[in-house]
Known about the structure:
Distance between the termini: 51 Å
Helix content: 25-40%
CATH architecture of the largest domain: 2-Layer Sandwich
Radius of gyration: 28 Å
Largest sheet: 6 strands, mixed
CATH class of the largest domain: Alpha Beta
CATH topology of the largest domain: Heat Shock Protein 90
Strand content: 15-25%
Strand order of the largest sheet: 10-9-13-14-16-15
Number of helices: 14
Number of domains: 4
Structural class: alpha+beta
Amino acid sequence: xxxxxxxxxxxxxxVSAFAxxxxxxxxxxxxxxxxxxxxxxxxxxxxxxxxxxxxSIRPQVDYRLHIDEQTNVITLKIFQGLYPxxxxxxxxxxxxxxxxxPVDSLELSRLILEGQNCxxxxxxxxxxxxxxxxxxxxxxxxxxxxxxxxxxxxxxxLREKNxxxxxxxxxxxxxxxxxxxxxxxxxxxxxVMLDRAxxxxxxxxxxxxxxxxxxxxxxxxxxxxxxxxRKNEQIPENAFREAIANAIVHRTWDVNAQIKVAMFDDxxxxxxxxxxxKGLSKEEYLAGQLSILRNPIIANIFFRLGLIEQFSTGIQxxxxxxxxxxxxxxFSIFENSIKIVLPVVKMELQGVSEDANVVYSILQSAPxxxxxxxxxxxxxxxxxxNLLEELIQKGYVVKIGNGRGTKYxxxx
Length: 412
């Protein structure tokens, strides 16, 4: 809401800003401190406001005027338009704190795309002679195609009928000019870099695959216990997959920036360029209502390949992976970036001791013997047996077999 004590042409910048970026109100006859003073001859003032808007803003905006007969305050309600950008004196505006400021060239191009109902990944690319061996292999494995033909590229939205590739086509090509992922494994602090991989100018599928490989290198290991091969995950793989896919699919690709993946002993931080898509609130994003796809072609192919589930479920799937964990993911949303923090899982069951929680955290995908649990926890064999009995009594663990072949697993 914006207050105006008097009528000057500066309010037209605010009209442009609200029409471009979201509904808003301007109250005429109210001082900046909120003191109501009213306006003289509000009926004539409304006519002046209408004339100024109709003569100065292009294209025409949708607005309403209301006069409070008791206070003589005029409320101008501006509705977000369907055909941005909305210009005042050949400039499009946005709100910046309490001021209306011109948008830069990048934001202007995005407003133009929105007005044309287009996405960046659907625009024609300036590149040619692209190759798609990585995508072709993925599609052969997932949906059984024999060859990635030009017609199939058109169907997928990677190529136009005139033979030109789209930006999505360039992004899925084996080689391209796009910044990719800067992945760093840190030691005790950010001044100690143990490993660094800059994955750039390659297919977005390779970005996904290489990042997943690095995750597995540092946060997974396999343990053989008798006839079982058990995979330990410090951080749930499903959560990391969703975070990386989300960063690739929903980032802004029209900025020269990398996705940042920072790996620490106790967490992974995934930061992607670009804030939320226009029209989507933080609450809707966290509730899994990401119905506004910034890159629909990329999202569709990731969906076809099974790299993402249904659209809008990524955040919910990350949270589900941490359902039993004491530590929970964190989501930080900024104007030009989104950061997802995935902590190392720490189990905490209700109604059992801290040591019992430690034992429960060891039990994952395969049944384990008490001896194996003792080795991993450094608890004595008798203590492990007592803790397992505590977990069994609470219904968290079940016992399998008898004698030397006895093993234990989670009940769910």
